[in-house]
Amino acid sequence: MRTWRKGLAVALSAMLLLASVGCGSSEDHKVEWGRADAKEIDVNSKVAGRVVELLVKEGDEVKAGQVIARIDKRDLEAKKAGYEANIAAIEAQQLQAASVTNMQAGTTQSALAAAQHAQEKASSDLALAQADYERYSDLVASGAVSRQTFEQFQTKYEVAQATYEQAGASVRQAQAALGQRDVDEANEAATAKKLEQAQAALQEVEVSLDETEIRAPFDGVITEKYVEEGSMISNGTPLVAVQDPTDNWVDLKVPETQLSAFAVGQTIALVARDGKTQVTGTITDISKKAEFATQRATSERGDASDIVSFNVKIQINNPVLRPGMRFRLAGEAS
């Protein structure tokens, strides 16, 4: 019952459309034959190489994701193995660099702390030895102590000076080792960067390997085959064309004098040139810009200016349509 009502509604819509199109218009201004078209794309290769398998032919039906061709991938597999080996080597370097950094970090910190502690003690000992030296210098000058006693404190002062200088050198050496730690950390960061670059290169070749299997982008039919097995192809070379038989439409060229009879969302009935194939569809777009002059102004017709045409797209989505077929409004005189 619903189907009958829908068919009646479409028929009435077509009759009203034809009545409005024919009313007050000349035979020269009627809607022209429209041309059918469908969603169709060329399936291209993203990698260069030899086509080792072509699994479809013209007219074959395919499903989305189905493998339709394969490209020789031996070179890419060799590159992948090389990148994996390189990554393993860099990871070993990174581990070694981290171990060196950690080991030196603990060693240099301990060494610096010990050197600083020794320097502090040497400084205290030097200050005490210097005070004794200066005091006994005055005493030996006044004859209060012997020269031999003074020389003992003089020697002690000289030893304290040498010990303090040696402690300072140890501190500077430990501080220089801390600078080496910075170098080790920079080397570790550089190794991590190399690993990141190597992993990116591996991911790139893995993507290329995946692209050696050419897959159908959607359910459809192979309408054209551009290459054969064994062909050498470059990046971007089309292999086949795939058409979606459930996504099609008819483009009608409607004169401006009849455009008001059409609206987006309107249901339209069409008939093919054989007079038997009838389809219905919905207007999904009416062009905002005129495409060409349908009729040139002539004195015989009494037209003051050209009659321009606008494209009206009628979505059909019926497998009976084939791109290139011609259709007109159902019931319109041919």
List keywords for this structure.
single chain, 334 residues, alpha+beta, 6-stranded antiparallel beta barrel, 4-stranded antiparallel sheet, 13 strands, 46% helix, elongated, disordered N terminus
Protein model, in words:
This protein is an alpha+beta fold. The chain has helices at 2-22, 74-142, 147-210, and strands at residues 34-44, 49-54, 61-62, 67-71, 213-215, 220-225, 232-233, 238-255, 267-272, 278-286, 292-295, 307-315, 326-329. A six-stranded antiparallel β-barrel has the order 1-8-12-10-9-13. Strands 5-4-2-7 form a four-stranded antiparallel beta sheet, with no helix packed on it. Helix 2 packs antiparallel against helix 3 (147-210). The longest helix is centred in the first third of the chain and has 69 residues, at 74-142. The radius of gyration is 46 Å and the shape is elongated. The two termini are 32 Å apart. The model is unreliable at 1-12 and 14-27 (pLDDT under 50).
Q: Give, in order, the helices and strands.
A: HEEEEHHEEEEEEEEE
The Cα radius of gyration reads 46 Å
- Low-confidence stretches are 1-12, 14-27
| Beta strand count | 13
Distance between the termini: 32 Å
Tally of DSSP helical segments: 3
| Broad structural category | alpha+beta
Shape: elongated
pLDDT averaged residue by residue: 83
Fraction of helical residues: 40-55%
Give the DSSP E fraction (strand runs of 2 or more residues): 25-35%
Give me the side-by-side strand order of the main sheet: 1-8-12-10-9-13
Main sheet: strands, sense, barrel: 6 strands, antiparallel, barrel
